[in-house]
Write a structure and sequence with these properties.
alpha+beta, about 30% strand, eight-stranded mixed sheet, six-stranded mixed sheet
Length: about 625
């Protein structure tokens, strides 16, 4: 019976998505419209060097990734795309510090692009030295943001005041200095321009008004020094003046589309950890281990891996340790063999680049967080959070700066989930007591959190899925999601009053709301999936996953039976919504052998909560059957 239901669902999926036979429901009747996710990021290599050093990559790419966008970098000094090739892009983004190389050629190209169905976001300088011969062309470009350049500038700015300010757009992380930076005089190009910031000179200077942050119908503009509080000594750390999430969402019209999400799985925030082997065979200086001549690697195994068997760790073989020979090499191999026998341990197979990625009191800006990948042609995947080498030990004797990682973990969860919980450390953590204690604190926090632990290799596959995912709108509030690989969560921002319709959707396991954000979990076995949203009426379609510590897939259900496959670390805690009142029998099996059976009862909120105290590092099958009472309650 269950297999027949599953076969029917797949058949419906194919007929709905491909239009094969039958009457396609009105919700899916629209001709598929591809959702464009690529943004052409232009930079001047003469100003900034390689793409990895650009402001767009260092500061803007992370919030753009969060909104689901993929950046394609192009040096302005190379041949720019032909207009016909521009159609693939959602828009163009520039962040120049002044006039670019061959500005006349760039302006001619930008003028052609401005006539196309492409959005344009201009941060900083427009890239052109404006004069009487080119101001009309510049203003054709600025018109996309609803503004025009007068050719005038205000310098000095003494007496300038703020005439209008939209706090949802500006003063996101920093405020303007008491004496404003010099600025151009920019005017609105029409009544529909949304003004983020308008300044006005004093009356003795004519009371000239200038719009320095603006949103138009097809673009945005934020003037230099009014988009970002740029890096200054002694810290050389900048902060966003504009709200990049709001501005980029408006700039590129992301609207209500689903966003491939790399932070979440099965409704919970992801967790993964990487242990570098550097220092594996060093002698430990920790009391209790020093006298026993224990190595740092042995301490890590006994204190950080074995006690936390419910948290996975991926081992990164590093050159110094892997290259050792003789007695030291033998000791290294023995230690690695012991570590890798742990059921929660695997070998890192996919390179994950360590970068500076912090958000804390020392780095009080999201600009300190890394984007998903590097901007160079190799596109290395970045680790979401820094390892212990990024934390200077300026604290009291016996303390370690790595304890500040908890600030980044907290700041990237609220008010918005920007990163998974990621713990990176080295084997020499077993050499020093303060560092060992700091790592242990992070592991204890992860154990208590509502997380879905995964291997670092799985995270790398999820990031790959972010870039491969293709989305088509096939209805007013319905999308087809395909080629997503290991990525199985899509997110809807500002989704108040909406939820996934489980009867119209295909391949949707469940959903979870956190504030205005809706996370929708997909089944990896259904390709492509279809997500249909409706109003916030009670969800139809029976049991739906709210959250789980384990990864869930192969979901098959009918009126009173639910079966799924699960895999994960530690005990499996689950919450399902849409449960009729009554008791349910829950059984776990592997290879047709029952491992555990118990009953659970739905609560008053129609939620079924239970914990499965079995190992699921190797996948298990879970069956949920309603009792007679629950069955009668459904009728």
């Amino acid at each position: 019976m269950l297999m027949r239901i599953r076969t029917w669902l797949i058949a419906v999926n194919l007929s709905v998505i491909q239009g094969i036979g039958g009457v396609v429901p009105a919700t899916f009747a629209q001709e598929p419209i591809p959702v464009k996710r690529e943004i052409l990021a232009l930079y001047d290599g003469a100003q900034e060097g390689d793409a990895d050093f650009t402001r767009i990559h260092r500061f803007a790419e992370m919030p753009l990734n969060h909104l689901g966008f993929i950046l394609r970098f192009q040096d302005i000094r190379t041949k720019l795309p032909e207009p016909a090739d521009i159609e693939r892009y959602r828009g163009v983004l520039t962040w120049f510090a002044g006039s670019v190389s061959d500005s006349n050629a760039y302006l001619a190209w930008a003028t052609r692009v401005s006539r196309m169905n492409v959005r344009y976001a201009i941060l900083g300088d427009v890239g052109i030295t404006i004069n009487s011969t080119n101001i009309l062309a510049v203003n054709r470009l600025l018109a996309l943001a609803g503004v025009r350049h007068t050719g005038e500038y205000v310098a000095p700015t003494l007496g300038t005041r703020v005439a209008q300010s939209d706090r949802s757009l500006v003063e996101f992380e920093c405020a303007l200095d008491p004496v404003f930076p010099n600025y151009p005089v920019i005017r609105a190009n029409g009544a529909g321009t949304r003004i983020g910031l308008m300044l006005e000179t004093p009356s003795y200077d004519g009371g000239r008004k200038s719009i320095l942050v603006a949103i138009g119908e097809k673009g945005v503009y934020a003037a230099w020094n009014y988009e970002f509080c740029h890096q200054r000594p002694p810290l050389y750390r900048g902060q966003w003046f504009i709200n990049p999430f709001t501005l980029f969402r408006s700039a590129f019209g992301s609207g209500d589309q689903p966003i491939p999400d790399t932070t979440t799985a099965s409704g919970n925030r992801l967790y993964f950890s990487v242990l570098g082997t550097e220092g594996l065979t060093r002698a430990s200086k920790i009391e209790g281990f020093r006298d026993a001549s224990a190595t740092a690697g042995e301490v890590v195994l006994r204190e950080l891996i074995e006690p936390f068997h419910d948290l996975p760790v991926s081992i990164e073989l590093q050159g110094e340790e892997a290259a050792k020979s003789g007695r030291a090499g033998t000791l290294t191999q023995m230690l690695l063999k012991r570590i890798l026998t742990g059921r929660n341990v695997d070998l890192l197979r996919h390179g994950l680049q360590v970068t500076l990625s912090r958000s804390d009191s020392e780095y009080p800006s999201i600009s300190g967080l890394s984007p998903l990948i590097s901007a160079d042609p190799d596109h290395y995947i970045n680790r979401p959070m820094s390892d212990e080498t990024a934390y200077n030990n300026k604290s009291a004797v016996g303390e370690n700066g790595f304890s500040a990682l908890k600030e980044t973990v907290a700041n990237t969860e609220s008010p918005s989930r920007l990163k998974p919980f990621n713990l990176n450390y080295h084997a020499y953590s077993g050499e020093y007591p303060a560092l060992l204690r700091s790592v242990e604190e992070q592991l204890s926090a992860a154990r208590l959190g509502a997380l879905t632990p995964i291997s670092a290799n799985q995270y790398a596959a999820i990031v790959d899925g972010f870039f491969s995912t293709r989305i088509d709108r096939i209805g007013s509030a319905t999308w087809r999601i395909r080629d997503r690989g290991a990525l199985q969560t899509v997110r809807f921002d500002n989704a108040e009053g909406r939820q996934a319709d489980l009867q119209l959707s295909v391949g949707v396991i469940g959903q979870k709301r956190i504030g205005p954000t809706l996370y929708v979990a997909l089944d990896k076995t259904i390709e492509p999936a279809v997500v249909a949203l409706d109003s916030s009426e009670p969800s139809r379609g029976g049991l739906a996953l709210v959250e789980s510590r384990w990864l869930v897939s192969h979901v098959v259900k009918d009126q009173c039976v639910l079966r799924f496959e699960a895999q994960g670390y530690g005990d499996g805690s689950f919450i399902w919504s849409g449960a009729a009142s009554g008791r349910y029998t829950i059984a776990v099996e592997r290879a047709d052998q029952e491992l555990w059976r118990e009953t659970a009862e739905a609560d008053e909120a129609s939620r079924l909560k239970f914990v499965l105290p079995v190992s699921a590092i190797k996948p298990v099958t879970v069956r949920i059957n309603c009792t007679a009472g629950a069955r009668s309650a459904r009728k």
